[in-house]
Fold each of these.
Amino acid sequence: MLFAIDGYAATSIGHIAEAAGLSKSAVLYHYSSKEALLEAIITPAVDGLEGVVASFARSADADPRHEFVEPFVDYLLANRLEMSIFVNQGQSLRGLPVIDRANGLVQRLGDAVSLGVVRIDDRIRFGMALGGAAYTVVAAINWTDNALPSAELEDADEVRAALVEIVTGLLVASRTSVAAH
């Protein structure tokens, strides 16, 4: 996905057509604009993010590993390229409806995470758990020796297990300190 690799602003319909082996008019036949193409590509990932946000709300009193963390990590790993756009370009792409929706969901997740969390160190811990996991997965695009960022991580199971363990540890530590206050 050129939007994730080169950036949305640097990617033209002509670049997309060339990479796909199509003419520019063929791409424009299916997508009226670059924005429409981005929306078609990103919408399924944003829909998935909406499910992740909903799962956090449901897991408030449950084991965070099974109710939230594992689905969150699986979401991140399954949507690495899309997350690269959210994480790296989300602020510069404000005004595009699909990006605004993604940014709103990220904000809702942040608000839900910090609900009832008074201490600043706990808020930072939550932010590092979720944001750090997202950034780590996005940065993993550069970890492979393969030229294509969509290439599978060589140790995907190991990366998944580590992310689940670390994010769970950070969330549980924070929940424990919230319960103690």
Amino acid sequence: MSVCVSYLLQFGWERNDYDLLAAGSLAGHLIECGAQSTGGIFTDWHKVPDWDNMGFPVVECSSDGSFVLSKPPKTGGLVSFGTVAEQLVYEIGDPRRYLLPDVICDFSQVVIQEVPGDEGGAVRVTGAQGFAPSHDYKVCATYMDGFRATAVCPVTGPRAAKKARRTAESIIKRTKKMFKQLGLEDFSSVNIQVLGAEDTYGANARYKDSREAVIWLAVHHKQKKALELFSREVAPAGTGMAPGLTNIVGGRPRVSPVLKPFFFLHPKSQLKVDVHIGGELVESLSEEEPDTPVQDEAPPASVEDVPDADLPSGPHSYRLEELAYTRSGDKGDSANIGVVARHPLYFPYLKKHLTSSVVGEYFSHLIKPGVKNAVTRYTLPGIHGLNFVLQSSLGGGGVASLRSDPQGKAYGQMLLDLKLRGLPDLKSLVD
């Protein structure tokens, strides 16, 4: 919102210049996470120089809404089509309806073009569209939902993963016996992961065991005293269970409250803002109920959303990383994975082969059981990209989740290993 206000003041835009406000909002979206648009957490991380001196993004804006994104000279990092396109798809839902208080943005047709000759890289960004804002504000609230604790313990030696899993299960079994003796309820939920055994990948795991593993044991309970008991009972594993448990990272697990988030829309007309100066009320602001309704549904699917049925097939298979960049993030208990084609000629094949059902099956072990149509796919033809939204896939999300990746930061990286089969020789198309 502050980005829009600065544009209004600097360029004299009006509050109903929705395309321009969408462009200003896009500039804010691309730079809000700092180095994430200048090479931070980029898929091709090995091509990004000087992490120790990362340059943050600089945006040079024009009155027509276009802007150039670059970084200061003699700084580390990289500005390219890929780094900025990844940030465009970061933590969004439907790219055609990105809801903000001042404008509804359509980023689906945004174009990112590299500017030649600029040291460290630069891109010109155009094509944002905007519509009248919604009649509602987006609200994020929290409520108390019991307590949590997490134990992290490295385990070393032969069959480390098996030792780690049995250790975690034994700690839970031991603690449950004590709960029963003391008349306490059972855990609300328990999450056991063995990092190093690729538990996060579910059925897609390749390496089930190694000589090093890490126990990730997170628990949730309504009562704090129950988790204080759990916290004490982790330490005996170091002397009474598997050999090779070397440490409890951070010492005895800390018990902390769970503030669970929930989201809803609230009518703007039901809110009043009071402005006080020097302790005195000088103005009360409220928004009147609009006479005309705002269209709440997304615009109809465009031609670009429909896969080309006439694409040739072939004997080749490719890991997704060979064809695309990915970036993932969270919105509450939902995750999104943006996929951007490395070359425009790859895009039709991604649309045909990387469907919502394919992505849903790949991440089925992380999606809450019983959720139907959990994965929705959107297209961003301007950057030859796809955006997948995975509902109920983060175990509650944020501090409410017991997982080692509560915000889906690794989902995009995990998807890079997905193999797309039955394709022609795509590399020959771009050589």
Amino acid sequence: MDAVVVALRFLQFAAAVVLFGAPFFLLYGLRAPVRDALPWPRPIAIVAGLALFAGAGAGLLAQTAVMAGDPSAAWDGALLVSVGVETPFGLAALARALAATAALVLALFMAPGGRLWWALSVLGAAAVASLAWSGHGAATQGPGSLLHLVADILHLLAAGVWIGALVAFALLLRAKPFSTPEAQALHGALAGFSGVGSAVVATLVLTGLVNSWFLVGLQGLERLATTGWGVLMLAKLGVFAAMLALAAVNRFRLTPALAASAKSGDLAALAGLRRSIALETGAAVLVLALVAALGALAPPAAA
């Protein structure tokens, strides 16, 4: 059941960051009427909402079985209600399910526009923040517990902004070069994300250091590479470094080249950007998988 819990954590992480980050990107990265005419934002929100609802419900069932030490306990109504309303994990899962339900209703029935993107962003942000209660961020006791929780929530939200933007860029890059509103808006969106991306990276680094202080500490550094949690964390840091390198290439090389190629009709820059965004998105998926697994292991500070 532990493997099932990790898989469902990954599903919820992926769905929540897309539900938050993609609509949020539409608000700061694109302008009306281009953003409201795009064909993919509402379907993406619907898929993310469905996945989040299913993941939250199944995750509650699986976690109940793990806590009871018996897979059949997942179908014990009284125990399931107890876990759902009496534990922080259960309450967070219910909050994600409610946020997913509300997002689904809005995405299905509201017209595309700023109000819808704002509503989806807020609901997605609530879902992302609730994931702090399925990891180590909410488990710290004593002095500094609130600081750790806030840092973990901000870390998750910053990751959601980045990954949601990657999903949006990947979908924009499907457009035929420079012949549709999507393609025409692409360069502006890339340029607009540069400032946001710098703030995201700074937030990730700062909150990551705070989280590391609580989860590793000075005494845990020497045994970081000898624990399962530490090995996965080092792998996560390596993938994060690769994402930073790809983001730097996108910003300082490929984005200017794309602007120049828009005038000349050269498709090399667009092809290079597609490859780079695909690699960066793949790295982001790997990071989410590592984070899902890290939540199931004890950090060095807990040993």
Amino acid sequence: MESIPASLVKSLNNLGLSNNEANVYAALVMFDNADAKDLIEYLSISKPSVYEALDHLAEMGLAVKRITKPARYSAVSPHMAIDLLMGNHKKSAKLALEKLEKLELEKVRTDKEEALWTIYGDKSVEYKFRDLFGKAKNHIRCMIGERYLPLVENIQIKDISLSLIVISDAPGLEKKLRAQFPGKNADIHVITSKKFATPPPFAPPEFEELHKLMRVENTLELIVDDEELLMIPPFYSDTVSVLNTRNKGAVLQLKLFSQFNLKRFTDGMDFSPTAQ
């Protein structure tokens, strides 16, 4: 079995084949045609497992059974096999999505408060971010730093209200974002990192020390329809720890903070020391 790379078996696993099916198909590709005995000896897999794999491969159209004694099998071409497997995946994915979307509409609500939970990993954040943008029906409130700016690139939303604050020193970014999200329902502002760091007059003495610990580029705050939030604290960390919740108290608190920031950064309120 050393001739069949583990990476190939894993790839075929991801396409829906079991370990035995992946190994048997790969062996058939190498053998051109073989009977069960050939495969048992070559792969060191039990006789029942080989026959079960052959039957399933033939049923899926990945192997052809020849009516001989003993029966011999040959693999369809790798190109055809991958096309068949991808086609099955796409059909299954389409059906699953249709059924899951129906279940989502029938979501069971309880009187209990939603718990807080976390998501780890940049990919998980990207999927959740785009999912929330896509599901929004009424309003999106979002503030992000440059690290997560690629998440909004090429993203499209329905004709709903959007409040977007981006912390960035990139020239021309606000014009680019306004072109991406045109319409009167989009309220978009790009603020500099210096402006973000300027404390309001009522800030406690610890504000300056706190800001030294922050990584502004890591900021991510997203509220959708005042029902669900996604938040990454803007502090340095080797791993991504994300707060994601539908907890009403947490959503309301971040919403109020978001409204304050919108007013602080965009309504002409001058919080610089020289203005005091």
